[in-house]
């Protein structure tokens, strides 16, 4: 096999690998496992100075639904201090929930994280401190595949429940989000595999 054919073959393998991961993310985005659990963990998203922005708002609204329907007893909101902000994303999210009738004693705040993995790690510590064991993870549909993989690898007993509505509706907004999630998902899998190989050696 000459060099050109090898390159074409390698390119085709890479293309199929990427497309397979995209398909996996899209299929998983429709999976809703909601059931009775101790807490809902709302993965963080952007806020401005004094309010949650639309993406985070949709996630919080879904957690309100889970709480009101009796699926969860508590809600954990996540997100640290954004650049130039005076309040953490989680504190603004907490106030949003309280303003909509969720008792303040039923809302926990995780205020140190800036990325998904930290959202989950820190939320897991909050759960352990409070004696909770099961969680429903709430985020946008295209984010769920990566979030659930991270949750499972942290040893969490977690279930997926994507938002029923999302601000990523048009192709113009969906495609960049899907591309980003695919990049991070593949990147994490490769990082994880390299760590396992290094550990075995």
Question: Can you describe what's shown?
Answer:
The protein has 201 residues and is of the alpha/beta class. It is built from six helices and five strands; from the N terminus they run αβαβαβαβαβα. It has helices at 3-28, 54-68, 89-99, 116-130, 144-153, 171-200, and strands at residues 39-42, 74-78, 107-110, 134-138, 157-160. The chain has a five-stranded parallel sheet, sandwiched between helices. Strand 1 (39-42), helix 2 (54-68) and strand 2 form a beta-alpha-beta unit. Helix 1 packs across helix 6. The model has no long low-confidence stretch (mean pLDDT 88).
Structural shape = elongated
CA-to-CA gap between the ends? Answer: 33 Å
Number of helices: 6
Count of extended strands: 5
Strand line-up in the sheet with most strands: 3-2-1-4-5
Structural class: alpha/beta
Q: Secondary-structure element order, as H and E? A: HEHEHEHEHEH
Q: Tell me the radius of gyration.
A: 19 Å
């Amino acid at each position: 096999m000459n060099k050109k054919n090898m390159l074409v073959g390698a390119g085709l393998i890479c293309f199929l690998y990427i497309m397979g991961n995209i398909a996996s993310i899209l299929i998983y985005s429709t999976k809703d496992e909601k059931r009775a659990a101790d807490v809902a963990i709302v993965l963080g998203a952007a806020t401005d100075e004094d309010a949650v922005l639309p993406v985070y708002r949709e996630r919080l609204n879904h957690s309100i639904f889970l709480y009101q329907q009796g699926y969860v007893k508590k809600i954990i909101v996540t997100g640290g201090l954004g650049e130039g902000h005076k309040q953490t994303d989680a504190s603004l999210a907490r106030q949003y929930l309280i303003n909509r009738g969720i008792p303040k004693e039923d809302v926990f705040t995780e205020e140190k994280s800036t990325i998904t993995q930290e959202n989950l790690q820190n939320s897991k510590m909050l759960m352990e401190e409070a004696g909770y064991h099961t969680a429903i993870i709430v985020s946008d549909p295209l984010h769920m595949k990566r979030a659930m993989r991270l949750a499972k690898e942290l040893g969490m007993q977690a279930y997926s429940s994507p938002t029923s509505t999302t601000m990523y509706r048009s192709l113009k907004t969906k495609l960049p989000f899907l591309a980003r999630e695919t990049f991070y998902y593949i990147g994490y899998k490769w990082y994880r595999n390299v760590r396992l190989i290094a550990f075995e050696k």
